[in-house]
Amino acid sequence: MNPKLHFQRFEFKYLITFDLELEIKKRIAPYIKKDSFVEKNKNGMYEVISLYYDSPGFFYYKEKIDGVLKRKKIRLRTYRNDGEFMKYSFFEIKRRHDTVILKDRFLMSRDDYDKLIKNDDFHSTVAIRDQNRKNIIKEFEWEQHLRSIGPKVLINYDREPYLGRYNDNFRITFDKNIKAVQNDNLFYEGNDFEDVSGNNTVMEVKFNGSLPHYVSEVIREFDLERISYSKYCKAIEASGSLSAYEFPQTKGIMDVREKMLNNGMVADGAFGI
């Protein structure tokens, strides 16, 4: 495998049912081919496992919820094929400006991953010696300094990937069985994940230039609506990660007055209202 380390492309997302997924794949079959990464897999899919970083107050989550057009995500990612983890992981910074995606990443050995998690920095890793990785690491260190970011939620899902048969710059993926857990171990194999996607599939269309005509036709025919779907935000909500930051609603003065009067703590008229 020769993984691509820098991406700039458009990314459109659609939430579809399983039946519609089958119909769409049937319609576009003449124009797509399986990603070589899954050619030998039993079911034509691989698992994507991502460990997302955020601040104690969930700065990146709030940017997405607030509709900020220019934002970023920082994560560790690995893959599992037929139940077997890859021998490496990726460190990634994914930036979005509206529909345009810019992603930088680099490969990490398991030893470098362990050192990063243990020490919360790259100082003792082999990765930091590579000049090509230093700008990404510097951006990460700046975010650590600025926002005190750390691992927040682990996300796992099955991905069925295809490439354009006549255009390798086109990619379409079908993501399902999305689940999440509050955990800081990218290689965690517990069974306490929370369901995120239900019976739905997230179809992601990724391309440079113009959208292929056969995809445009499918979108029109099935009246598909492009959505802003964040696996990270859905996972944060499903896993209960925000619970520590949900505060009771502040009581108004009339609520406080009534409670104090009922408890005999003050005489009626003491509030002057």
Can you give a write-up of this model?
This is VTC domain-containing protein. Pfam families: VTC. It comes from Candidatus Magasanikbacteria bacterium RIFCSPHIGHO2_01_FULL_33_34. With 273 residues, the protein is α+β, with helices and mostly antiparallel strands. The protein has one domain: VTC, catalytic tunnel domain (mRNA Triphosphatase Cet1, Chain A, Alpha-Beta Barrel). It is 27% helix and 34% strand. It is built from seven helices and eleven strands. The protein has an eight-stranded antiparallel beta barrel, surrounded by five helices. β6 and β7 form a beta hairpin. About 3% of the residues have low confidence.
- Going by CATH, the architecture would be Alpha-Beta Barrel
Order of helices and strands: EHEEHEEEEHHEEEEHHH
Roughly what is the average pLDDT, rounded to an integer? 89
- By DSSP, the count of extended strands is 11
Q: Strands of the largest sheet, in order across it?
A: 1-7-6-4-3-8-9-11
Number of helices: 7
| SSE-based structural type | alpha+beta
Shape: globular
Unreliable parts:
247-253
The named CATH superfamily: VTC, catalytic tunnel domain
| Radius of gyration, CA atoms, in whole angstroms | 23 Å
CATH topology: mRNA Triphosphatase Cet1, Chain A
The level of helicity is: 25-40%
CATH C-level class:
Alpha Beta
**Into how many domains do the coordinates divide?**
1
